[in-house]
Structure formats: structure tokens, C-alpha cells
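Worked problem 6 (solution included).
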Amino acid sequence: MIVHHYCTANLGDFLNCMPVLSGVARAHGPITLIVRPEMRKFNGIREFLQHQDHIVSDVLFMDEIDIVPSMVHLSSWTREDKNNSIRPTETCRYENWMRDHYPSIHFEVDDQVELKVADLPDIRVPKGFIVGDRANHSPDPRRAVGQLSHLSKNSEAVFLDYKRPMMENAYIIKHSPRPFVSCFTGVSILADLINKADNLVVWKPEDYAEEFRRGPRQVCWDNKTIEEVFQKHYYGDRKSKLVHNEDLGVYL
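Solution. The predicted structure is:
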């Protein structure tokens, strides 16, 4: 089966499809996955996805292949109905798209899926806590980049280098004994799907444009509260936790 994922080039929104693709692969065998060429901005994304051989057999960018009618086209641009309360809303949208557009493809969402991290013994895992900040990959003036830059003053903070291949950063996140500190960005959704223990998703109102702020402890983003934004992207029964920036010290 060839699956053409075309709706986003944002890492987090993209990764939310993996439980659906894993369910499809479990029922029908590993898939050939076609992704948008803009995904190349994430260093090593192809190699990381190819390592998920329980889900995909090959990964291609859209500009490397011709679109053919037999492809399954995958998007999350659809309804948000949830068939499982712990499942991320964005994952449910991918599920709904598949069920609505391809009712003959029978599958169950693989809510237990864990993305594989390669064994990289030559990679040194820092002793400090790892920070994955929001980078300027896809500028959106409604949300700030460098949301965790204030942590640079903490001598124990070690910021991920996004010039590294994605698998190397996944290895560091997975094997660090300390909590992983991130924000609403793709690498924190990656941490959720590799089942990182203590994945702290840090937020503060100042991360959002003023029009979205609702006092010191709330925002309204796409008509959702901050708790609903968290539920959109993270599993309710894994190890990710929504943490207000003022409360972060309790967890470090």
C-alpha cells in the first residue's frame, strides 16, 4: 500500500498520524509512505521513518514520485470526533479521514505504538536535563520561537541541536535519565511516541500573541483551552505532562 501524506509539513502534526499508520500496517503490512518535500527541513527525517520498519517499508518525498490513482491520500483536515478519550485529537482526525474516505481499509488505531530508536552507543548523553525548544522551521507569528530560551541561564540545561540527525536527538531524549523539557513543538510529540519517561510540555501565555491570552493561566488557541491543546497532540495515558512555566522547577 502506498500512502500519500499531504496535509502538513509540521513535524508534530505529521507524527500524530503514526498510530493510525501503525494500525494500517498491522492489518495490511508495512506501507510505502510519501511525505511532502518540505519535510526535508528536519534533518534525517527519512532515515528515522525508514527505521520504523514495523510501519513503513520505504519513505519518499512527493517530488520523487508521480501521484497515481491507487495511492491512499492521508490528511487530518476533517472532523474531530473521538473514538477513544485518551487518543490525541489530531490522531483521531487522521483516523476519521481514513474511515470516511477509505471504508474498505479495515484497521484499528495502534494506541500502544512506540516509535523505534536506534542503538547509538557512540552518542554521548549529557548529564543535564535536555531541552527541545520551538525552532523557526515554520514561522507562525501567532506563537513565539525560542519559548524556552530563558532556560539557557540554568547550568544544567542542554539544548537539542536540530542540526543533528533526528535519530540522534531521539536517542538522547530516550536515554537521558532526566525529564525532557520541551513545549508545543514537534520534538515533544516525538518524545510522547517514543514513550519517554517524564516528557514535560512547558507553556506560558507569553508564548502566544496577545489576542490569544486569557490571563496568567489560560489561552484560547483555535477555540481551545490550553488543556484541550495538550489533548490534541498527546496521549492521555503516556508520560507527557502539561506544565506551566512557573511550575517547572517542581519537576527538575
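Discussion: The first strand starts at residue 2 and ends at 5.
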